Amino acid sequence: MAMVGADRDDTSWSIPSQNFSGRNVSDRDVSSGDAAAIDSLLRSVRGDTNSDVSRAGLVSELRDGPAFLATLAHLRWLAIGCQVLTVIVVTGPLGMHLPAAPLWAATAVLFVFNIFATLRARRVQRVAPIEAFAHIAVDVLVLSWLIAWGGGIANPFTSLFLLPIAFAALALPVPWLYATATLCGIGYAASALFGRPMPHTTVGDGFNLHLIGMTVNFVISVIVVVYFLSRLAAAIGARERELATLRERFARNEGILALATHAASVAHELNTPLGSMTLLVDDLLEQPQRAGVRSDLESLRTIVDMCRDRVRALARPADDAAASAPVSLPRLVDGWRLLHPAIRLQVAGDAVAGFVPVHAAQVLRALLDNAAQASQAAGNDDVTLRLDAIEEALDGEVSDRGAGFGVVQSDGVGLGVGLALCQAIIEHHGGRLSIGTRAGGGTWVSFRLPLQPGG
């Protein structure tokens, strides 16, 4: 048999989030595939929604993540390089009699500290404001030392005391901003009171050299500020996109929870009539019946048992061993064919004879139900399923011969949320889902779903 997907065209879409909370859901709206998917989502969303909300409240603060420490570390490497170059030029070609040992010592201390800071930024997940302030404080102390030994407030690089205050204003809470400003003020005052006088140079005019130093200081300040602000803007943009995604997922999960609650209520109401149907079918089977009628009754008994199992699964606790037992794919396919006898289901792939986790089985049932409804609505009975196991993940595709997207269905079959439910299950387990049109009519839905928790 030809592999699924050979007749695709290039059109594909992503699935938008759906809002279920404003729709009245009738009992007949909940199809078996949707109900199974709702059951899986109910188990996962309960533990997922609150964590999304808590993360969403945190990602808006840049200081809570390692981005600020990483940016400081990058700028510190630039500062160390500039310090090395400045000490070499000032004590060498310019012939200024500055004590080189204290200057090199401060540069070495900053170098060692920045190795620690770089490693810390790579390992930490959350950064407390006091830790970020401590990193800035080290920079201020080293800068104060260098300015004091490099000519005091006559040093053209004295205005660099403003940069730590700017960084703190953009990334730290107000109390730590005041602490940073106070520390920079103390460093400036100490440099002015206890700093060594600026020695005279043996090359050129001292005032012109001071102007050149101020120009270099300005260029360095511009580079540092632009780099820091661009990194900050990129980090904030990424966090805002993440927050928007979390809000969208939370809104969708709220709708799914409401839908799951209704499905559980419907399951409770259906349990009694299903039990009555089972008793009636058993009574009929105990009576003499023609061969054809007995075969139909046995099929009906099997279908009732399947429906009863689905209904009971909706009320099963999430930690029940039966709720997490692997599902046999051949049994799943045979059961689905029994519920859809008019559909010609073609199956391919190397994973169709194995077992899959419950969440993968829920996705398959919902996608197959959608495909069957779409094909039948277009007067076609063909549905194709491909399943392959690739690198601890289930790679699959379900295709139909329906009318495709953009066609309004009015037959009232299903909620029309099967794809959204499948997308939520797949996203929760770290997978992905995409859809598109088939050449000659119809739709394909492909997915990659990790078989192990966490993807």
Q: How would you describe what is shown here?
A:
With 455 residues, the chain is α+β, with helices and mostly antiparallel strands. The chain has two domains: 256 residues, Histidine kinase-like ATPase, C-terminal domain (Heat Shock Protein 90, 2-Layer Sandwich), CATH 3.30.565; 184 residues. It is built from twelve helices and eight strands. The strands form two sheets. A six-stranded mixed sheet has the order 1-7-8-6-5-3, covered by helices on one side. A hairpin with a 4-residue loop joins strand 7 and strand 8. Helix 2 runs antiparallel to helix 7, helix 4 runs parallel beside helix 6 and helix 7 runs antiparallel to helix 8. It is rod-shaped and about 120 Å long. The protein starts with 7 loop residues before the first strand and ends in a 5-residue tail after the last strand. The relative contact order is 0.14. The N terminus is likely disordered.
Produce a short descriptive summary.
The chain is of the alpha+beta class and 455 residues long. The protein is 61% helix and 10% strand.
Observed structural traits:
single chain, 455 residues, Heat Shock Protein 90, six-stranded mixed sheet, two-stranded antiparallel ribbon, disordered N terminus
Radius of gyration based on Cα positions: 34 Å
How many domain regions?
A: 2
Share of helix, binned = 55-70%
Low-confidence stretches: 1-6, 10-35, 40-61, 406-415
CATH architecture of the largest domain: 2-Layer Sandwich
Total strand segments: 8
| Shape type | rod-shaped
Order of helices and strands: EHHHHHHHHHEHEEHEEHEE
Secondary-structure content class: alpha+beta
CATH topology of the largest domain: Heat Shock Protein 90
CATH superfamily of the largest domain: Histidine kinase-like ATPase, C-terminal domain
Average pLDDT over all residues = 75
CATH class of the largest domain: Alpha Beta
Biggest sheet statistics: 6 strands, mixed
Number of helices: 12
